UniProtKB/TrEMBL annotation:
Arginyl tRNA synthetase N-terminal domain boundaries: 76-164
Family, per entry: Belongs to the class-I aminoacyl-tRNA synthetase family.
DALR anticodon binding domain residues: 532-658
Gene that this sequence comes from: WWC1
Catalyzed reactions per annotation: tRNA(Arg) + L-arginine + ATP = L-arginyl-tRNA(Arg) + AMP + diphosphate
Name of the protein described by the UniProt record: Arginine--tRNA ligase, cytoplasmic
Keyword hit for Chloroplast: no
NCBIfam families linked to this entry: argS
UniProt EC number: 6.1.1.19
Top-rank lineage group of the source organism: Eukaryota
Keyword Coiled coil appears in the UniProt entry: yes
Length: 658
């Protein structure tokens, strides 16, 4: 009953606001109204209407925030408020800059609007010399009535410092406790395709695939949490000339492969053997080419051989995905084979294809390198299959957002593919977001490319097994094996091992290369998963040690006001409510280390709070709990809720006992 009533109130209030606004407009242009006699009366009426309009607007904002179960993005709300004030203060300035950021130092307030300086620069370029401080004062005067701001102050050359209302922040925290961590409302549910992981059949997954898998999965989790419709695609390399030599080798080694499933245990070795023969034996090389032709003409015996090889690889990949808890749909290069001819014809029909020494190439505007859509031997290339994949995602999947998560080395290639797709009119970049999210290389501790001692690429499963081994050593070093059951110990081992590997990757800016070091990632000091997982378990145990169960916390959230009188309570409360703005930033730039930095800041802010503010007071002699400060227990609960959701987006699985 409460929500329909709120909705009814919202609608009636909004209608009244519309009619009042219309009335105000008509009063601004009083045509033919015996002006002088009416003017005073009108001015008075105008003032009354403005007052009523503001009262209504404020009650509308308050009802909105109370009806809504979702978390408010405070930064965005402040931008709306300051946007309105700036438009009122400088109506003639086109697209004035809007800059609102959290304040780094508490003494200057909670947020800061820094638009006045940039606006002064804009005016100066138009020949108007205005002091930025004057602009700031003008903005300050025009701040509309709102539910959020307690007061504003102007500092320095024109910074506007914003102090938030503690009572309102407290309400937002209660909302978070009662409804859980809910994402801000979406304007429209968009379809997102994320292309990530993408290993090659018959080759081992290596650390480059590890980065793509971890980063891509976390991006998908973020979009899913925010309410988008997400398709996770694995664009595996499952087609091409290498399959000719693999099938030829399969025929020689397991001649009865059509009836008896061949025991290919080590596909890597199998690949190396066939490659050696391909390079050294002329007859074998000829047969390999014939096998490619047979495969491409869909000969059933060859398709069966191809499927067998793909399945061996899939099983290997799946072991990695199971460890890292990755959900992904395979849609390899073979899926687009049939679609490539049509793509080439479409480019030809629009006169966009040129001949170059027997090759068919496409030049996209602004790009130095052409795409080769057909080779001189009539075969297709990566360029052709990537165009076909992009076309399918745009037209068949009807994606609004498409993200490719591969190493930065492929950046130029995708830039050309995207430019060609725009040239032929497949999508408008202002409407559809198509983006390459590149990442740097994984380095060893010697700062060189990550290799084994013998110089081979590191097998991913070996790396994950090593992580499990190191994580168990770390837990035993802390005597956890003496207090945890075998089952809890194994859970903690997997949580720490895979959590640390993921976090070490995600906590670095993906654009940079990063150094892989088990010692660093398993260290429980500093910005690591080990530290955060321990901190989380500790926060979760506070209520348990005070014998407060979920039901008691739930009841407290309904009846207890979250007090924010102590500086450290206030700092923690504000930090918790920054979560939606952190997610919005990542949505814009796809840089996940921002979330890691935020979780680390939250954990350290919590520690400051816990050290300064007693949540539970115990008798010094008996150790019995004599007093529980329930509003502080609620702050602990809110911190755990936000951390848990942050872990979930990063793909990290915390445990209740560690």
């Amino acid at each position: 009953p409460e929500v329909p009533y709120c909705n009814y109130k919202l609608v009636t209030n909004e209608l009244e606001i519309h009619s009042l606004t219309a009335e105000l407009e008509s009063l601004k242009n009083p045509q033919g109204l015996g002006l002088s006699s009416h003017l005073d009366g009108l001015r008075e009426e105008n003032a009354k209407l403005k007052y009523r309009l503001n009262v209504l607007k404020r009650s509308l904002q308050e009802e909105r925030s109370q009806c809504s179960k979702t978390m408010m993005n405070i930064n965005q709300r402040l931008q709306e408020i300051f946007g309105e004030a700036i438009r009122e203060a400088c109506p003639d300035l086109e697209n004035p800059p809007l800059a609102v950021t959290p304040n780094q130092q508490a003494k200057f307030g909670d947020y800061q609007c820094n638009s006045a300086m940039a606006m002064a620069q804009m005016m100066k370029s138009k020949g108007l010399k205005v002091n930025p401080r004057e602009i700031a004062e003008n903005i300050q005067k025009n701040i509309p009535d709102n539910e959020l701001i307690e007061k504003t102050e102007i500092a320095g050359p024109g910074f506007i410092n914003v102090h938030l209302k503690r009572s309102f922040v407290s309400k937002l925290l209660t909302n978070l406790l009662l409804n859980g961590v809910q994402p801000p409302p979406l304007e429209s549910k968009k379809k997102v395709v994320v292309d990530f992981s993408s290993p090659n059949i018959a080759k081992e997954m290596h650390v480059g695939h590890l980065r793509s898998t971890i980063i891509g999965d976390s991006m998908c989790r973020l979009f899913e949490f925010l309410g988008y419709d997400v398709l996770r695609l694995n664009h595996v390399g499952d087609w091409g000339t290498q399959f000719g030599m693999l099938i030829a080798h399969l025929q020689d080694k397991f001649p009865n492969y059509l009836t008896v499933s061949p025991p290919i245990g080590d596909l890597q070795a199998f690949y190396k053997e066939s490659k050696k023969r391909f390079d050294e034996e002329e007859d074998f090389k000829k047969r390999a080419y014939q096998c490619v032709v047979k495969l491409q003409s869909k000969d059933p015996a060859f398709i069966k051989g191809w499927n067998l090889i793909c399945d061996v690889s899939r099983n290997e990949f799946q072991k990695v995905y199971n460890c890292l808890d990755i959900q992904i749909i395979e849609r390899g290069e073979s899926f687009y084979q049939e679609k490539m001819t049509a793509v080439v014809k479409e480019f030809e029909a629009k006169g966009l294809v040129e001949m170059d020494e027997g090759r068919k190439i496409v030049f996209a505007p602004g790009q130095q390198i052409p795409l080769t859509v057909v080779k001189s031997d009539g075969g297709y290339t990566y360029d052709t299959s990537d165009l076909a994949a992009l076309r399918h995602r745009l037209f068949d999947e009807k994606a609004d957002i498409i993200i490719y998560v591969t190493d930065s080395g492929q950046g130029t290639h995708f830039q050309v593919v995207f430019a060609a797709a725009q040239m032929i009119g497949w999508y408008d970049p202002n409407v559809t977001r198509v983006e390459h999210a590149g990442f740097g290389v994984v380095l060893g501790e010697d700062k060189k490319k990550f290799k084994t001692r013998s110089g081979d690429t590191v097998r991913l499963m070996d790396l994950l097994d090593e992580g499990l081994k190191r994580s168990m050593e770390k837990l035993k070093e802390k005597d956890r094996d003496k207090v945890l059951s075998t089952e809890d110990l194994t859970k903690a081992q997997r949580s720490v091992a895979f959590g640390c590997i993921k976090y070490a990757d995600l906590s670095h800016n993906r654009i940079n290369d990063y150094v892989f070091s088990f010692d660093k990632m398993l260290d429980d000091r500093g910005n690591t998963a080990a530290y955060l997982l321990y901190a989380f378990t500790r926060i979760r145990s506070i209520a348990r040690l005070a014998n407060i169960d979920e039901a008691a916390l739930r009841k407290a959230a309904e009846t207890t006001e979250v007090l924010l009188e102590h500086d450290k309570e206030w700092k923690l409360g504000k930090c918790l409510l920054r979560f939606p703005e952190i997610l919005q930033k990542i949505l814009d730039d796809l840089l996940l280390h921002t979330l890691c930095d935020y979780l680390y800041e939250l954990a350290t802010t919590f520690t400051e709070f816990y050290d300064s503010c007693y949540c539970i007071e115990k008798d010094r002699k008996t150790g019995e709990v004599v007093k529980v400060n329930m509003w502080r227990m609620l702050l602990c609960d809110a911190t755990a809720a936000i951390m848990a959701k942050g872990f979930d987006i990063l793909g990290i699985n915390p445990v209740s006992r560690m």
